[in-house]
Amino acid sequence: MKTFTHARAFRAVLIAAAIGGAHTAALADITDYKFELVDQSVQAGPDKIVTVRLMNTKTGKPVPDAVIFATRLDMAPDGMQEMATKIVPVPGAEPGSYKFKATFGMAGRWQLSLGAKVQGETGTVENKLVITAQK
Ligand SMILES: [Cu+2]
Questions:
Q1: Alpha carbon of 73 to ligand 1 centroid (Å)
Q2: pTM above 0.70, yes or no
Q3: Which residues contact 92 (CB under 8 A, 6 or more apart)?
């Protein structure tokens, strides 16, 4: 019973910290990392390259060596979430940048969903970015 109470109290503290965003300035936090698109638009068509940068928003510096484990590219912003296309990582990006290849079969807005682990941080960076494919 005592352990149970402690576990509950601990969880309450965690929730309070999450809501309040209470963490010391000296420590980085997983919420301090954000993906950004290098280019907001691509040409519609096969085998287009999308480059994203993973930024530490506290330092303003790109973050190399992140492990990107979840990607999805679909047309949710234009109401076509079922219209998804394969997205493949490709090498050759500079440190802190990450490149992908995908076929944009239709002009319009595409949503790129990314998940990543950052070295030395617990938790996951999860971002959704909107890319416009142009005719
Ligand atoms: Cu579409």
A1: 11
A2: yes
A3: 99
